[in-house]
Amino acid sequence: MTAQLNGREALFVESLGEMATVVNRVEALVPLLQDTRKSLIDANTQLCNQRREFDVHMHAITEHAKLVAMNHVAQHTREMTRKSVQTQVVEIHEAARKAMGAEIRPTLQELIAPLHRLAYQASQRESARERWERWLAHAMTAAVASSVTLILVSAWLWTR
What is the pLDDT of residues 46-105, one digit of tens each? Predict the structure, then answer.
């Protein structure tokens, strides 16, 4: 039985020695863990600062992207509006042409036809003598105007 006690005691002593080694190692780890904790806190602070800078930078990028997108949308809207206005102008002109052809032209032709008949009748009523008298009146007016001009030019040259 003593051999067993001695074996147990030896095992117990050996366990105590290993526990002392483990305790020494754990005690040596405490300052390293504190340094690691401090490094993690510093890294967290730096990361928070970098995240703030990143947020500011991302906000600037987002604002720029919104501005570019709004300008792009505005440009395409102006272009589509211009095309729409041109299309409407063409359609209005076409509608006006159709209205002229379908509604106004027949009305105008109805009004013009009697005027043509009256003009033709008026020209037929005028006799040959009346036509010559009318042309003779024009010729006499031209002759009188020429004579007056000649007299005025002669008088002006004579006074010089």
Answer: 999 999 999 999 999 999 999 999 999 999 999 999 999 999 999 988 888 887 777 777
> Which amino acid is it at 24?
N
The torsion angles phi and psi of 127, rounded to 5 degrees, stand at -85, 170
Q: How confident is the model at residue 133 (pLDDT cuts 50, 70, 90)?
A: confident
CA triple 90-96-99, angle to 5 deg: 145
Residues 6+ apart with CB under 8 A from 129: none
DSSP letter string over 50-96? Answer: HHHHHHHHHHHHHHHHHHHHHHHHHHHHHHHHHHHHHHHHHHHHHHH
> Domain locations in the chain?
2-125, 130-160
Q: What is the CA radius of gyration of the chain?
A: 58
3-state secondary structure 127-145: CHHHHHHHHHHHHHHHHHH
